[in-house]
Amino acid sequence: MTPLDHIATFLATKLGKALLFGAAITLAALVAWWLFASWTGGKTAKTETKLGAAQVEAATDSGRDAVGTVAGHAHTSEEIDNLTRSNADEIFEAEGADAPVAAGVRDAGKRSLCKRAAYRDSQQCLQQPAAE
Predict the structure, then answer these.
(1) What is the rounded CA–CA span in Å between residue 42 and residue 30?
(2) Which residues contact 116 (CB under 8 A, 6 or more apart)?
């Protein structure tokens, strides 16, 4: 008897039929599980894609807001610096602007102006005396 004959004889018994039936049920269950996993995995992938797209959109919006905030701050700082320059020009052109001022008052005024971005790099600010 060949090995194939032995297998055929075994499968003809009740135990062989039971094992064959169990293997068929197991295979069917595995195929059903694989189909279910593939189907729900597709839904999960779609959900993850939607979430990913929402996160990208939120990040883009946040970046746009941040750029707008920085640009708004820069614009506001520029307006403040322009106003400071305008005020200084008005003060220096006013009647009596050439009148003597006490040295302490003059130095304090220069120091306060030199703290502003509009004057920080001016020649007068770079050569100012130290505070006493």
Answers:
(1) 18
(2) 80, 81, 84
What spatial distance separates the first Cα and last Cα of the chain, rounded to whole Å? 116
Alpha-carbon distances of 108 from 86, 93, 104, 111, 113, rounded to whole Å: 20, 20, 6, 5, 9
Instruction: Report pTM.
Output: 0.31
Give pLDDT tens digits for 16-65: 888 888 999 999 999 999 888 877 766 666 666 777 777 777 777 787 77
CB 92 within 8 A of CB 122: no
State the alpha helices, DSSP H only, in the chain.
Answer: 3-12, 14-93, 103-114, 123-126
Q: How many CA atoms lie within 13 A of 100 on its CB side?
A: 2
The answer to whether the Cα torsion of 19, 20, 25, 30 is positive or negative is: positive
CA 43/CA 64 separation, integer angstroms: 31
Burial string for 73-111 (b: 16+ CB within 10 Å, else e) reads eeeeeeeeeeeeeeeeeeeeeeeeeeeeeeeeeebeebe
